Amino acid sequence: MNENWDFLIAEFRRLGGIADNVTQKEGEYGRGIFSVDPNLKVRIFTPSKLLVNKDHIYLEDNKLRIKKDKQYNQEIRNFFNFYQDNFSWGFGGQETTELFEKGLSLFNPKLRELLKKYALVDLEERHKGNWNNIIKEQFLSSRVFKFKNSKVVVPIVELVNHKVRSLPFISSEKGISTPNFPSVNGELRHSYGNMSPLSRFFYQGFFSEESMVFSIPFSINLKNIGKNIVCKGSVLQNDYLKIDRFENEIILDGLPIADLNHPRLPYDYFDQILRKIGDLKISQDLLFKIFQLNLSIRDEIINESKLLNNDVSNILIKIMKYEKKLIKSHN
Prior knowledge:
Layout: H1 2-14, E1 18-20, E2 22-27, E3 30-35, E4 43-47, E5 52-53, E6 57-60, E7 63-66, H2 74-87, H3 89-105, H4 109-118, H5 123-126, H6 131-143, E8 145-147, E9 150-153, E10 161-162, E11 170-172, E12 175-177, E13 187-190, H7 197-204, E14 212-214, E15 218-222, E16 227-231, E17 243-245, E18 249-252, E19 256-259, H8 265-277, H9 285-308, H10 311-330
Parallel strand pairs: 10-13, 16-18
Antiparallel strand pairs: 1-4, 2-3, 3-13, 4-12, 5-9, 6-7, 8-9, 11-12, 14-19, 15-16, 17-18
């Protein structure tokens, strides 16, 4: 392992990468990146020449390889192959992804229906096609970074584990870097970006105590004004408020219903909605009704998940209970 790591880092540096004071080993959150000397600063920088577009990767003899018709020189292909075989896909990445997807595939029809309707995750569609390609796609999708409007694999940087309420990675024209860490005694961790706990679970396959929860999709009839208020159930990436109004409907992209860092956010956001709608008399009690609807659907998902009782369904239960706890703290 140490010989492989030393060779990888030597090649990485030769090709323009920076890997200062770091090593890979097992920790509390599985394999991660740790400082070698706790008194020195740490940094990883992956230059753009080593970033590989997700769509340029395929399976060859069940190994991840760069498609032959794509323009990458041989030394970059050799580096990518060694990295994937010894530190990523071939070093537990494929196995972990497959165990997660097999766990999802065992969900019963009622649970699948609930997740499709309320979590916007269609497991039938997700698992359609060749199984090996499904695992490859899920593995890559869970690890890619956005760079210049493309989704790319970022060797070495992608080995750093996620931590809520931590510094984000840094993207520039030249490549992608870990945050400007001070000296670190132990494991390096950074933020993969904002996401709800449920979205993190389906996107990257683990439970994380994310700070925000968003509403499930719903349509509630407001009899006093003769309109339906509809929420699409999207996870919002910023505080931009978008409302579409039609003759019989008011449509929201998404609705935050809990924020650990800003407990007033659900109420303030809902107040903004009411002010933007303006001429309609909508009661504040509607938000309480939305809270209760979200809690009841999460209870349904928990009850169905308990019938299966495998590792993946148990993580889903844990996530639903965590989201319920956050919602109730504002309810």
